[in-house]
Amino acid sequence: MNVSTSLKVRLPAFVLVSEVVMIVLYAVFVTYDDNANAKLQNNETKPMENSIYQDYPYFVDVQLMIFIGFGCLLAFFRFYGFSGMVFNFLTATFAIQWAILIQGFFQFYYDGQIHLGVINLLNAEFACAVVLISFGAVIGKTSPVQLLVMALLEIPVFAVTEWAVLKYIRINDAGGTILIHLFACYFGLGVTFVLYRPSLNNGHSREITSYHSDILSVMGTLFLWVFWPSFNSALTFKGDDQHRAILHTFLGLSSSTLTAFALTAMFNKRGKLTMADIQNVTLAGGVTVGASVDMMISPVAAYALGIMGCTACFFGYKYMTPFMARHMRIQDQCGIHNLHGLTGLISSTAGICAILLATEETYGPSMYQIFSHRAPPEGDQKLLELQRLIPGLKPGLGRTAQEQALYQVAAIFSTIAAAAVGGLLTGWVMKLPFLASPSDMDCFDDELFFDMPSDFERLKRFNMHHILCLVYLIITTLNILCF
């Protein structure tokens, strides 16, 4: 191994320092929340009302998306399967630990403590998903140390952006279209712009897939597909809002899947299916319904959004990704701009339209719960009337539909700007020579960072028995987690 890419000192040093820092910060600032604190339990406490029973199923579903869904999806390169799955595992684990602290410091500002519960872990997983989406833009071209540095820097930029948008601009974004998908996309594009490698525009000998790597990758797609309704509905209001979110996500995913199969066959020169389209374009509907996922947009609108998102994603992969690589110095390895950027913009636009069309006639009094910033302000007589109908309804800002729509637009542009600037700065840090960046020749190659098994060179004869064993192992693990 080339000394410049050795992990012998770099990775242990990073991990050791980060763990010491985290131990200190967790010891000083982190305590249990009310649902996990034994001192707050008494004979009046009802254990079955603990938030664990409401939040944990969503936590498990999102974990499966992050560690198995993303992990398998990123193992699509023939000689980069170890790196795709293991770097995802490493980066995700670090990102969640770090996000608990960074997101918690905004709570610390108000409460003097970071109260840890399952809901905090769930929020940290969403922050982790941001990092993993950005990872897709630079997969195959970065070392594990660089990826940890990216997570180290991206989480604070994301947390500050999220806090500023939610506190000062105040938007509706139940499925995380703006604050997760758009942020992650443009942060990743900023990073890959700085890490541009001209020689890779002509392709790389190991930048290829194989029969078995494509099977593994499509398994990741299936995990993401199945659990995406949980991702979109986890943080919505419990009850009918969450119910709509699940229905809309499923309809969007279903229509985008059918459309993806039609498009890939139509535009293939031999009229066949392309695995890359099945792995990525089928997921577009889950993103496209995100901004309006809890609103009364109607089932047919969710279905149509899935078709629109899939179509934009498909043509983005076909035409925009190569154009950006050749003319804009943006080598988007996994096409995150198509699956998260283009679809995110469509979703945000649909959310704005849904806000403009929302009326009490359609929603009833609950409109002021879903669109909380449109609720009357404190002291308004109408607020008192609404609170009699919806106990617990909080005062809002009294915004009109048009005003809220303008704030949504402001959030889109400010999020993209913050993400792009953060990505550029992070890319410059990741470019530092001591972070074990692979050379152009060594990209997309597991051998650079792994002790490979003796049969690695006989990878071509990797048989279906191994794939079936892996499928069985994953399904068994899933059954254990669920039951």
Q: Give the averaged pLDDT, no decimals.
A: 90
CATH H-tier superfamily: Ammonium transporter AmtB like domains
The string of secondary-structure elements, in order, is HEHHEHHHHHHHHHHHHHH
Shape: globular
Share of residues in helices? 55-70%
Rg to the nearest angstrom?
A: 23 Å
Number of domains: 1
- Termini separation comes to 44 Å
Total DSSP E strands: 2
Q: Any idea of the CATH class? A: Mainly Alpha
Can you count the helices? Answer: 17
**What do we call the CATH topology?**
Ammonium transporter fold
Class by SSE composition: mainly alpha
List low-confidence stretches.
Answer: none
Biggest sheet: strand arrangement? 1-2
Q: Could you give a short account of the major beta sheet?
A: 2 strands, parallel
Q: State the CATH architecture.
A: Orthogonal Bundle
Strand share of the residues?
A: under 5%
Index terms:
single chain; about 475 residues; mainly alpha; Ammonium transporter fold; two-stranded parallel ribbon; 17 helices; 2 strands; about 65% helix; about 0% strand; globular
